[in-house]
Amino acid sequence: MTPHRLAAALAAATLAPCAYAQSADSALTLGTVDVRQRSEGHLTAHQVLTSVDVLGADRIADSNVQHSWELLGQMPGIQLTETRQGAESGKVSFRAFNGEGYLNAIKTLIDGVPSNVNSGNQRFIDMLFPLEISYIEVVRGTNDPRYGLHNIGGNVNFGTRQGGNYTDGRLAYGSDATRDAQLAIGREANGLAQNYFVGTQASGGYRDHDTSRKYTVGGKWYYGNVDDGMRIGLTARAYHHQAEEPGFMTAAELQANRRGSARRNANDADDRHMRQLVLHADLRLADTLSAATRIYYNRYEDDRQVTFSDLRTGNAPRQRRVWDETQVGMLGTLTWRAHDTFTLDGGINYEHQDNGYLRQRFSYSEPTDFSALPARIQSDDRHTFAHWGAYAQAIYQPANALKIVSAYRVDRFDGRTHLPGGVSGPLQRYGTIGQPKLSVVYALGPTTNVYANWGRTFQVLTGSTAPAYLTAGQAAVQPSTNTGKEAGVKFVPFAGSQARVAVWQQDAENEISNMPATGTTVVLGQTRRRGVDLQASAPLGERWTVWASHAYQEAKITRDGRSGVVSLQGREVAAVPRHISTLGVDYQATASLQLGMQGRAQGDYYLEERNVAGKYGAFAVLDLSARYAINPRWSVDVQVKNATGREYAYAWWDSFFWDQPQAMFSPSAGRSVHVGVSMRL
């Protein structure tokens, strides 16, 4: 099957007479998506859910990025937290959740397989390089019943290439001695589909002491066809990343030399290994009944040496952090298409984690001597974490113009921790966490849909110590439930275009800000997040294509149980910008030459919950690109990132490692130029 423009297909459906059945969805797509990737017998997100965005392969494959999470910067309402500390590079978030690590609210998946580490951080997606990715699908809000753990504000699924016959390669070289090589091979014949990928990247880094080298290898083997009754598959990936860390800078250091690295950080580095192995089975049990199963193994090993300040008293600023995590899990779904108007879909999942976390602290030396005996072993923990979940959803379409989806999900957790000194304790007793959900889409006509959804998600604590585990003296903590609602309209302003406007709100009952890596916990209490999302894309004539989005959002603490001057009530949640915007233009100058421009901006934000330390983090950057097709198989491209040389920086509030709390910074890269050559055979 050849690739199709899903965006064009959706637009055509909404323009066709009496096509309300197809038009009764609210998904938007930017770029080209291979339909084969989404026709596996079970339901896809855009068929069921309401606030869905998809980024296609043609917006991904030729991108020059250091980490795949950066690709989501093209998508509406996505906040990029760019920490830029070696392998600890950053993450994505949306719906007014931040990427600071205190509450990781975005479920991350690779080919539908859970790919968060225990804390909820998104490190597994670093295994993917752009040429291997077929699409990225973002589901916002609280109405997706498929996932429980970490699915607080929504989820992101990275779909990799499946089947086909191709040999694609890419070589690129750019600023700061950045070298990138990728090779993707697909072979499909006689019912056997094979996909292979090899990628490597090395860079000297924008700052001093900022070198990085990583590689990834992957393979996918599938046999059979769902239409014939069964398809089985195996996917495997391995990844290794070694990187120096230039360290966070004080305001004075940033002003003096934004490309520098303090002497205290000269030994800071990270050595990271990740692996993933998945067994897939898709079954067609009857004409109206299909099933899918995924059994997976995730392995995460990370050895990070980090220095936060040159404070001579104490040993807190100089740390070695070692993670050793193993996840084994299973997901199963069953879909019954009982009638043209009614489909019943359900699923179960189980995941068991066996995790270790070691944190050592070192005496003062400059730079930190990580080869010395640690002054203190703060953590040397082993903890298990088990998760059971199940859901059922009914999709009812009584008329072509109307689709109603009701769902219910339950989750349970168990586990135990073992700490130094023989200290042990069970996981918090959360009981059964129920989450009702409801979505409605109605087509007002062939070009306009209105939709609404309501749903509940939850937060449970992560990490190896209290408050996540009930060691001596720790009180019981209930899960924090998040109740969200959204209403919107998707419409076609004119032929080939698509647009969506949505308003949303999400209320948390007892939100807790906790970071397992540092053992930091702050009870925020009741919070309210709300916002407005605007997005559109359209062709302008035969040569121009434009797209734009603007997300206004806010996150506030509405009640925290504290009194007087210690209360946080009415304060904004830290690190949440009020607006995030994108703008893009593509121009097909000739049959062979395409020019592009993309802008991205976000507002500033408070660094801490008391909102007294000022606002930081605003930026607006512009990227330019040009691609020339030498022939159908070979092309060359030039990309200029941050073309205006805008100087901005990620900022966070360091109240841990200095005599006085202060803002700390990680500067963005300046203007950079990359040249790439792509081959498609």
Briefly characterize the structure.
By secondary structure, this protein is mainly beta. It is built from four helices and 35 strands. The strands form five sheets. The chain has a 22-stranded antiparallel β-barrel.
Task: Provide an overview of this structure.
By secondary structure, the chain is mainly beta. The chain is 4% helix and 56% strand. The strands form five sheets. It has a 22-stranded antiparallel β-barrel.
Strand content: over 45%
Low-confidence stretches: 1-23
N→C terminal distance: 17 Å
Shape: globular
Average of the residue pLDDT scores: 92
- Helix/strand structural class: mainly beta
Spatial extent as radius of gyration: 24 Å
Helicity range: under 10%
Number of strands: 35
Tell me the number of helical segments per DSSP (H or I, 4 or more residues long): 4
Largest sheet: 22 strands, antiparallel, barrel
Give short descriptive properties of this protein:
single chain; 681 residues; mainly beta; 6-stranded mixed β-sheet
Secondary-structure map:
Elements: H1 6-15, H2 20-23, E1 28-30, H3 45-48, E2 52-56, E3 79-81, E4 91-93, E5 106-110, E6 113-114, E7 133-140, E8 154-160, E9 166-174, E10 178-189, E11 192-203, E12 212-225, E13 230-244, H4 251-256, E14 269-286, E15 289-307, E16 318-339, E17 342-361, E18 376-399, E19 402-419, E20 423-426, E21 433-445, E22 448-459, E23 480-491, E24 498-515, E25 520-540, E26 544-559, E27 579-588, E28 593-602, E29 605-606, E30 615-616, E31 619-629, E32 634-641, E33 649-654, E34 662-667, E35 672-680
